[in-house]
Amino acid sequence: MLSAQNISFVELCKIVAFVMVVHGAAGELSVDIVETQTYLKMGNIYLHLNTRDEFLRIDISTIVYFEADGNYTNIVLANQLKGVVCMNLARMQQLLSERLRDHARIFVRVGKRHIVNSSHIYRINVLRQQLVLSDGERFAFSLDVSKEALKALKDIMITAKPSPDHD
User: Fold this and answer.
1) If we measure between CA atoms, which residue out of 22, 17, 47 comes closest to residue 34?
2) Rounded to a whole number, what is the distance in angstroms from the first to the last CA of the chain?
3) For residue 105, which phi and psi values (nearest 5 degrees)?
4) What is the pLDDT of residues 106-137, one digit of tens each?
């Protein structure tokens, strides 16, 4: 429950004012993705994607990967739900950076077709051109990725400094 004691006016305004509608001259929606916003609530970080026809509110820790599909991006979650937004993968990558700021570091671009949540990387098999994303319990997704992209990802994972949460 939100109360005056545990939330500032500015934080409340950020929560309330996260959707901005943009209309063209003829009253038509001129932008498919109107606004995205993140906010903290009970320790979770949410990505909001608002399109002409639907609104997605996604806890970023549940995002396993994003996959390019032409001018669209598929969003695959740990519970195997899939969402689709009218935005190419390059724009999605830019939006993640802008909106999530420091939290966007968990997402890594892998080749031309994928952005993956690095906390779900289970196996990188360069020879088989396969990337397996899993939480070790509930899900496992196997992605076909080029050798070059997997080699680069492997190098990133090997040289990455462990986060302070993990010893």
Assistant:
1) 22
2) 34
3) -65, -20
4) 999 999 999 999 999 999 999 999 999 999 99
Residue 33, helix vs strand vs coil: coil
Question: Can you give the pTM of this predicted structure?
Answer: 0.72
Those residues whose C-beta lies under 8 Å from the C-beta of residue 82, and which sit 6 or more positions away, are 74, 75, 76
The answer for 41, left when phi > 0, alpha when psi is -120 to 50, beta otherwise, is beta
- Compute CA distances 6 → 2, 18, 40, 136, whole Å: 7, 20, 12, 36
Q: Give the distance between the most distant pair of CA atoms in the chain.
A: 57
Distance CA 63, CA 79 (A): 9
Q: Do 143 and 130 form a contact (C-beta atoms < 8 A)? A: yes
Strand ranges, E, within 19-148: 40-41, 44-50, 55-59, 63-69, 72-77, 82-85, 107-110, 114-117, 121-125, 130-134, 140-144
Residues 47-104: tens digit of each pLDDT: 999 888 899 999 999 999 999 999 999 999 999 999 999 999 999 999 999 999 999 9
